[in-house]
Amino acid sequence: MMQQYEGNSYLFGGNAPYVEELYEAYLNNPGSVPDNWRAYFDAMQHVPAVDGSSRPDVDHSSVIASFAERAKQGPIRTVSAAADPEMGRKRVAVTQLIAAYRYLGSRWANLDPLQRQERPPLPELDPAFYGFSEADLDTVFNISNTYFGQENASLRDLLNMLRDTYCRAIGAEFMYISDPAEKRWLQERLESIRSTPTFTAEKKRHILERLTAAEGLERYLHTKYVGAKRFSLEGGESFIASMDEVIQRAGEQGVQEIVIGMAHRGRLNVLVNTLGKSPADLFEEFEGKHADDLPSGDVKYHQGFSSDVSTVGGPVHLSLAFNPSHLEIVNPVVEGSAKARMDRRGDPHGKQVLPVLVHGDAAFAGQGVVMETLNLAQTRGYGTGGTVHIVINNQIGFTTSDPRDSRSTIYCSDVVKMIEAPVLHVNGDDPEAVVLATQIALDYRVQFGKDIVVDIVCYRKLGHNEQDTPALTQPLMYKKIAKHPGTRKLYADKLATQGTISGDEADQMVAGFRNAMDAGKHTNDPVLTDFKNKYAVDWAPFLNKKWTDAADTAVPLTELKRLAQRVTTVPENFKLHSLVEKVLADRATMGRGELNLDWGMGEHLAYASLVASGYAVRLSGQDAGRGTFVHRHAVLHDQNREKWDAGIYVPLQNVSETQAPFTVIDSVLSEEAVLGFEYGYSTAEPNTLTIWEAQFGDFANGAQVVIDQFIASGEVKWGRASGLVMMLPHGYEGQGPEHSSARIERFLQLCADNNMQVVQPTTAAQIFHLLRRQMVRQFRKPLVIFTPKSLLRNKDAGSSLNELAKGGFQTVIGETDDKIEASKVKRVIACSGKVYYDLVNTRKTRGVTDVAIVRIEQMYPFPHKAFAAELKKFANATEVVWAQDEPQNQGPWFQIQHNIFESMESGQRLAYAGRPASAAPAVGYSDKHVAQQKELLDTAFAKLKGFVLTK
């Protein structure tokens, strides 16, 4: 047996964490470990630490490395001749047995309510694996330093304790966590109570009441609205008890706001039984009632809701985020909303705000945005103090029940191991265990400020929706489900057997709930109707406002000069890079009015003027601090200091003593999660200019779901306003298919109902006024800005300081060349973006005097009056040409031509000048790019040919 142990035990062969635990125990008390290990650790004191010290508690890295090397050689032999070699071996084996249950116990846990899961062969959980025999079961060992809650125990009792703790209704996974304090906390919490709840009779009755409400609502809806889709929770009713515990315990811990994200399964149940939505209102929705003020609206199981509920710790505000059918996409939105609430409260660690994400098992394992969102958890710009994740694990996902078809991991939750989040798997048929796991999760989050998962293993009584017949593909599983009495019935019978409830009390609960549903009322209503949350945002000033392009965005010249001085000043002895030093020197000259402002300075003055006026600014994206094209330099780095906190300076955070916050974040390399996060932030904070900048505009493709389902349609579906700004670098500079186009056509295709703004500004003054307009106007709409690349340093795109001190954002910029006489103009070229400067230079080079060029800076909402007014200036023009860099089937052409045509005079002809249609957004060959650009410009000034539309 010992040979098998040496050759096969997973604790050897390089896997040394359990040895590290022994070492930590040794450091606390050398006498607590077996003699042979103590002798080995004594010898380790002479191993030099990283700093040269011989003290073992200075740095563990060299010691741990030694463990790993020593582990490859097999178990340590007895060192002391005086010690009992056999007893020493057994003491070590006991420690290994405990470690094995901590590592692998979840694999043997009783988690499946349907009892379909077979225990895998795990010899490491068998005492015989370590050389123990039946005769050893009553041997007493000192386990005070290796197992919490017990000083001495026989091997028999220890096995019972380990199996109770790790192999019953809760299966815990946490030994992959690298922080010893977190592991010890979880070990102590679980082992001290053997993972067994000890609730009062009152608590148990409350749990039963929650199960009754959960089951009762589903059965009531199933009877009253036969065949209607609702994505039933039946089979997972313990989830409602878990949510109730989340709210009550979080409130007790000082949480004042909880932001919840979940998909369809059980959502209607949460709306009624957790957030307190009126059952009567829900029934009306089933019967066809809808909001008349929403142009689109949405189905019942996508709806959000907010309420205030009472807890022992005081009122808690609950917000259930609106959610589209795209699974898990709500995750970053919830995190962003939670972050905005934290910032509003001055709560950097999330002590008062809690994000809760509810997942389905298949989606949790299958959707990439889950990983992207998890990756935000401990970052400075996106951390929310830990998220409680709850998985409604019905073991079948959509239609599959074989994990080989739904994931490549043992558990659906294995993705969270990337951030070392612990997982508590729990049997959904044991609601007390579910509540206990929830309590531990909340307490862990408070203690460590990190994510944790409660995986409720349950089943799905009905199909994916109520019109589905799952037995078609899962006959054996659904035969078992058909025989299952239901979680509520099992728990009610258990309480009756215990004497906790009387024989008919459970039936009375069921009848009482049914009567309440008939009356459209709640049976348990903790909702507060008169509570006023002082941190709530009043959206009323921003809603139901008519669209206007007008806004007073000018800033007095003296204030602009003051702001310019502030954003170009650095602390004494702060060493700038020579290139940055020149940038700031040039900007200082611009700020004095001695040089035209470039794009970066126009942008800086917009931010500076906003924060000085009390509007916060939050800017995030890949390379947002310096800008992808090194034009921004919002974050300055001391060339003589490497430490981040000491070696950076952000001038926009030092505009004035009473300014609003300016936050700039170099984001993780994610588009979907980060954009979703910023959208969520913007929906919870209308007084912050929230900006996401793509590294290249093309990369917004990776966040298309957020754009389609939230940014473009959130207001018409859910009445959810947002002032989010997207900055998408766009421009045909010969950099190939993935570095040219931000897909203007896709955004314009999404435009309707004045849902958002699509803009391509071409001067420094324009970006200044545009950004200020976004906050100064008293309504909030998403703003998509196609920002330039080459224009960032193009002197022709510069603006004077006076242009910022007067005027405002121009939706259309007419002909600016005084040499072009309006009466002689025969053709008007309309365009947007960088191509304007190419057209102007071509006209100048060729000496053309009868062509006017008009820039459409705002493509949606289309500025009909302004554009028509420009066309009317050229009464003799018979031709209008739309010119664009993009291929004909892309860019604005097909989405904007009807707007141009509408503004034309009778008899005028409309034509296109641009690249030919293409499957890719741009060519990758430089010579072909140049040839296409030449052809574009030739066409813009040549005779009309090809597509010509006459009005």
Number of domains: 4
Number of extended strands: 25
N- and C-termini, Cα separation: 94 Å
Strand order of the largest sheet: 3-9-10-8-7-4-6-5
Q: What are the segments in which pLDDT stays under 50 over at least 5 consecutive residues?
A: 1-16, 46-59, 70-82
Largest sheet: 8 strands, mixed
Q: Mind telling me the CATH class of the largest domain? A: Alpha Beta
CATH superfamily of the largest domain: Thiamin diphosphate (ThDP)-binding fold, Pyr/PP domains
Count of DSSP helices?
33
Gyration radius (Cα, Å) is 33 Å
Derived from helix and strand composition plus strand pairing, the structural class reads: alpha/beta
CATH architecture of the largest domain: 3-Layer(aba) Sandwich
Helix content class: 25-40%
Strand content: 5-15%
The CATH topology name of the largest domain reads Rossmann fold
- Overall mean confidence score, pLDDT: 89
Q: Specify the overall morphology.
A: globular
Task: Summarize, please.
The protein is an alpha/beta fold and 951 residues long. It has four domains: 2-191, no CATH class; 207-266 and 294-485, Thiamin diphosphate (ThDP)-binding fold, Pyr/PP domains (Rossmann fold); 557-733 and 740-805, Rossmann fold (3-Layer(aba) Sandwich); 813-950, Multifunctional 2-oxoglutarate metabolism enzyme, C-terminal domain (Rossmann fold, 3-Layer(aba) Sandwich), CATH 3.40.50.11610. α8 crosses α19 (505-518), α22 (599-612) packs parallel to α28 (764-776) and α31 crosses α32 (893-903).
